Each structure stands twice: as structure tokens, then as C-alpha cells.
Amino acid sequence: MKKWQVLGTTVIGASLLLGACGNGGNGGGDSKESDAKGEVKGDGSSTVGPIVEVLNEKFNKKYPNITVSSATSGTGGGFEKFIAGETDFSNASRPIKPEEKKKLDDKNVKFSDFKIAQDGVTIAVNKDNDFVKELTIDDLKKIYSGQAKTWKDVNPKYPAKEIKAFSPDQSHGTYDFFSEEVMDKGDIKAEKNADTNVIVQSVKNNKEGIGYFGYNFYEQNKDKLKEVKIKGKDGKAIEPTKKTIQDSSYALSRPLYIYTNDKKLKDNKAFGTFMKFVLEDKGKSAEKAGYVALPKKDYDDQLKKLKDLTK
User: Fold this and answer.
1) Residues 91, 254, 278, 52, CA torsion sign
2) Strands in 199-281 per DSSP E
3) Distance separating alpha carbons of residues 171 and 275, to the nearest angstrom
4) Pair type for strands 209-213 and 122-126
5) Domain annotation for the chain: domains and CATH numbers
6) How far is CA 240 from CA 11, 73, 110, 294, in A?
7) Were both Cys, which of 43, 54, 96, 213 would link to 78 (CB 3.0–4.6 Å)?
8) In this structure, which long-range contacts are made by residues 219-225, counting pairs with CB atoms below 8 Å and at least 24 apart in sequence?
9) Counting Cβ atoms within 10 Å, is residue 189 exposed (0-12), middle (13-18) or buried (19+)?
10) Do 259 and 52 contact (CB within 8 A), yes or no?
11) Where are the annotated segments for Disordered (predicted)?
């Protein structure tokens, strides 16, 4: 039976407390592993959150005696709790920042990162927008820097209608990714919100709206929105699909992570069992959640890494 507990309200709305069991940091094969007990705590990215929810549903069925909790405070908020020692793992939609790493180093906390899926930050406009079909990175920079006030400022062929730009707020790894990849770490001038569902609705409700979010949020709302192809450095306008996200030909592709506390991973057998389960899933849960699995070899390589960490 599933155990549910509200841990935070973000995009997912609630996180899961779900049972699982295992024996040993490497997951082991002991016939007694279903008798193991333990607790594992995580927090972080609302983009990664849906993947962890699907993983936990599977994990609960196989391992009913270990409790895994996963909240969604955003990538930045998750790292704050990870640094404070409040969690075993931290879900992230961007790599850890140097200043976050330094705080962990100052506390002599060793950590590892595991890539669990691939995502493509999707640019979407209102469904009734019949003129924007593709944009360049420079176009996006004009829009989100505030340089372009109207669509005509982006392209003289577009109408002189005021742009309504929407963005995740600074608690999101998606915001950081966009700031770095599109804005050259410059400020994002847009209406910001912590809840990605609000951003989706804002674009849906504004004929001149534009927003960005993880691929699965577009997939879940593609009847309400219109995706925009993005021109990469090679000049090709490419839309986000499972294929273009996995091979990174889509310009705004990115990996999704789970960061682990190495000492807790080694000492907490339930935690090692959970991480082994995550990697042995080989992206099936990511696909079910609307994201893209990594190549199989990537999971195999990371299972070897996990085995070394849990010896």
C-alpha cells in the first residue's frame, strides 16, 4: 500500500512517502532484502520531481519497508537542505554551482552526481499565435532582456503587439539554465512564478504570451500551447522531441541529476538500494514522466560508479 504525505507544494503539488526495501548499499541479491528497513530523504527540482514520483511508485511495490520521501523546493532550495545535512539526495535540473560546492567542501561533505534523464527546455507561445514558428537564441535574449517590447522588435514581419514574457523564478534550476545558456548570465526580465503550472496557464491565457519550462510540462499541455523551434549554432531550426533531446541536437537540451551525499550513501543501506533501483530502471520512469532516457551505456557506467561508492 502506498504511504502518502504532503511535503511541499510546487508543480507536483505533493511529494510521496513511499516504502521500499533492500539490503546493502549496492542493493544486493539476498533473499532477505525484502525484510530490510530504512528511511531516505530527498528534495529539490520540481522538474526532476515527476521522475522520482514514478520511480517511488515502482520502488514501493518491490520494497515496502523502506520509506523514501522526496519534496520539491526547487533545485536551489533542495541544495540548501542538502548542504545543511537535512537530506540524503538532492534532485537538480542544473549542475551544482561553485558556491554550493564550496559550502559542501567547507563542511567536508563529499558528494556525487548521477544523471538520470535528459530534458529539453521548451519555448512555448499561445496556441492562437500564428506568426512565431521559430526563434534564435538571440531572439530569446532580446525578449527576456526586455530589449524587444513588441513582437515586431523581434522580427519586422511580426505584428507590433506587446510581448508578455513568463519565466520560472530564481528557485528553479530551469531559470539558472536559461540565464546561463540564453542570457549569458544576464537578468531575466519577465513575470516570474515558482509554480510552472502557473506559467503554462499564463501563456495559455495571453495571446501575446511566451514562456519556457521542462519538456514534460509542454507534453502535458500541448493541446493548450504551441511549441517553438529553436535555431542552434548551425542555423537549423529544431523542435524538442525525444530524439533531438537525447542526441542534444535541440539547442536547449540538458541533463537532469540526482546528487548524493557519499557518506550517507555508504552508511545507509536503504539509500544505496534506492539509488541502485533508480539506475537499473534505465530511464523507463523518466520516459513515463514525459522526459527522455539516457543511452543505456550511461546507466551501466553509473551503476559501476555507484558500486564503487557503496563498497
Assistant:
1) positive
2) 209-213, 225-227, 229-231, 237-238, 253-261
3) 25
4) antiparallel
5) 3-118+255-309 (3.40.190.10), 122-251 (3.40.190.10)
6) 21, 26, 35, 15
7) 43
8) 219/290, 220/290, 224/127, 224/200, 225/124, 225/125, 225/126, 225/127, 225/200
9) middle
10) no
11) 23-48
Instruction: Provide CB contacts within 8 A for 17, sequence distance 6+.
Output: 3, 4, 5, 7, 67, 68, 69
pTM of the entire predicted model: 0.82
List, edge to edge, every strand of the sheet that includes 16-20.
3-4, 16-20, 66-70, 38-44, 89-92, 253-261, 111-120
Band (pLDDT 50/70/90 cuts) for residue 22 is very low
Measured CA to CA in angstroms, residue 50 lies from 10, 102, 253 at distances of 11, 29, 18
Q: For residue 40, list its beta bridge partners.
A: 68
Closest CA to 181 of 123, 99, 125, 247: 123
CA gyration radius, the chain? 20
| % residues pLDDT > 70 (the chain) | 88
Q: What are phi and psi of 93, to 5 degrees?
A: -105, 15
DSSP label of 7: -
- Which secondary-structure segment (H or E) carries 301? helix 296-309
Planar angle of CA 251, 212, 233, nearest 5 degrees = 20
Q: Name the nearest CA neighbour of 218 among 16, 15, 47.
A: 47
Task: Give strand ranges (E) for the chain.
Answer: 3-4, 16-20, 38-44, 66-70, 89-92, 111-120, 122-126, 134-136, 164-168, 191-193, 209-213, 225-227, 229-231, 237-238, 253-261
**Largest Cα–Cα separation, the chain:** 69
DSSP 3-state of 191: strand
- Cell numbers for 10: 510546487
How far, in Å, CA of 118 to CA of 161, rounded?
35
- Give dist(CA 198, CA 70) in Å, integer: 22
Q: What is the pLDDT of residues 28-80, one digit of tens each?
A: 444 355 556 899 999 999 999 999 999 999 998 999 999 999 999 999 999 99
What is the rounded CA–CA span in Å between residue 308 and residue 290? 31
